[in-house]
Amino acid sequence: MLNPGARMAIPPWPGRNSHCRSVRFTAVPQGMPWGGEERRMSSRATGKVVDETGGVAGLTVVAQDTSSVFSQDLAHGQTDGTGAFDLTYPDSHPDVVQEYGPRRIRFRVLDQVHRRLASKEVLDVAGVLAVETFTLGRRDHSGWLVTLGAGEPKPPVRDGNAVGVLVDNVVAWQRVAKVFREAEKSIEFMQLLFDIPPELHADTALEDPEMVLQFDDPPPTVAQPRGVRAQDARPERLLLDAVNAPRAVDVRLLLNRPQLDGHLVGASLVIPGLGLVIVLIGGLALALGKGTSLNEVRTYFDGTLLPKKKIEGATTSVFGPTHAKLAIVDGLKAVSIASPFDQGYYGDAEHAVDDPRRGNKDNVPIHDVSFAVNGPAVLDLHNTYRLHWNAVTDEADHLGEISPPPPQTDLDGLDAVASLQVVRTLGSGRFTDPADGEKGVLEAYLRAIANAQDYIYLENQYLTNDAIGNALLQALVDPARPKLNVILMINIDPDIPCYPRWQRKLVTRIRQGLIDAGQPEARRRRFGAFTRWTHEAATADHRARVVPNYLHSKVGIVDGKWATLGSANLDGASLDYFQFLHALHFGDVRNSEANFLILNGIEGAAATPVVDAMRRRLWAEHLGLETADGRPNPQDPLLDTPPDGGWVERWHTRAGEKLKALGEHPGTPVRIRVLPWPSADETLNSPREHLAELLGKTVFDDLGFDPISGTRRFSFKTGLFRDKAPEVDEVPEESGI
């Protein structure tokens, strides 16, 4: 119980708690009401950090008192050239009551972006506390490769992979259709959601299609809409073609299936009121089949050669879904599918307001990036699929090990050959091995940020993780990296409660951290945050209109040497732990995620053009660098060499030009698709709020165009739009207050 005199404070870099404000408490004893007594303990601690080659310099060591009601940092310092550290701190603390024995102090060893390398807790002594030497593996504390603390890359780097970066789902889903068609032996398919018709008909014309991976020519357009035809590639029909004779492919479908588990029940035990509500709502949602497509998919395939036992649910906590989305074919080729199988995610570089190919969905246009790989790294994807499949099936239906596919010489229509490391996030307690789960994706990002010298580019659906935010700030204020740029592409309104505020606060803390570090404005410009938009001209039917593009991508690029993409967002659930009610969970609840690390001439890997090709492809689309016929031009000269100040200046300039044109000539679109993140420390969730703030107007003003918050639905069965017009984010009614 807290002392009645306790004070409440919001720390400058808050932890994530069960509410949006992330409040912490610090107990201040008044007269020591618990009967404890202050004990005079050590005021100095010494020790050393070494690896196989000797002392390790430049690491941060933090001493933390863990015996108080709430843990408190006592001191921190860096290791010297011999790896030694020497910390001084008070031998007692006015806020700490010691009732039972000596003080306990935890020592943590951190790298330059505060990635934890080691920790140990010791009992305090009077005088000088001599801490036992920390022994690290060299590869655990340095380098680009994930080791998971094993002293060597885990899993190992796989060389000789044919790889392709698939920007937007018009490209990505076409690749999925291709590998489904080409399957000869097996398809291992993992998805978060799979929209599918309610029942199977021998005549496809009788079905009401939900999903199309690839449209036969000509595809439906606004000018020439059409319904779905038998020649259009639908995923459920491609899977049926594979499983039926003569191909008889072994098809296995693994779909996310949340359950009412101990993590959820734990909330009701600790805070019965809120917890009971959560359990009741969660239980009802699960009973109704929300959060999974398992029942619908089983119903559709019932009576076919795809039996129920080959369509399984990846049983997960409500708080930590199986979020990785994979199609693995013949143990040789794979696609890491960025999006759920939901037609609303369909899109191309244009991201038009009206697009019949998005089907019966009214969401704003969605941008996404998937990845295709043929070759040795498919082994690690199979092992990830196998881990999840075998956890929910009978032993007779378990998947076995496969041999590593050989290095590839045939690109199979992909971009180039590259060396890859596959990294994962796994929840604690979900699997027997690894019992504590994995945080390989977080380790990968923190290592890349620690090694960055020129630029860090992050394009992600969510950016709320404190470890990532803190690492970015530490990198930007590092005096050894004065020219480092950080470029963020993020959403105006992440779609999870509290995320809009957490993301805004993270951006604000980085901005304020640069000010607090005494950096002049020119140095502070090395950090830039941006959002993505579609701007369409007025026609006889409507005013000019502007719609946000929802970023679902999970991309990171550092210095042109390293890149990652896959399923993991930059939030707690994808990296370390689910933020909400974390203190009440039994263990660290995390999603199941899989990311690729692409290595360009680092860590002994051969050079590959893929990292630079990905940067050029994405930036050409976002920055509006196009060919004469309006397609993104990755070879635009503006992408060849960074301007003075680094690549972020190219982004500042293009976003500034877009904003200026939007304010002065709102009816004449400029093809640049990015706008700057607002300077106001205020959550601006709607398109109108966000754009009004940027343009120096209010939400009650005429912006000169219509901000769009929803798009028109289209029926694949009738070939007609179901709505007359997209949803406009209208001027709100004046408040009478």
From TrEMBL:
SUPFAM superfamilies: Phospholipase D/nuclease (SSF56024). Residues 547-574 form the PLD phosphodiesterase domain. The chain crosses the membrane at residues 264-288. Keywords: Membrane, Transmembrane, Transmembrane helix. GO terms for molecular function: phosphatidyltransferase activity. PROSITE patterns: PLD. GO terms for biological process: cardiolipin biosynthetic process. InterPro entries: PLD-like_dom, PLipase_D/transphosphatidylase. It comes from the Bacteria. PANTHER family: CARDIOLIPIN SYNTHASE, PHOSPHOLIPASE D. This is PLD phosphodiesterase domain-containing protein.
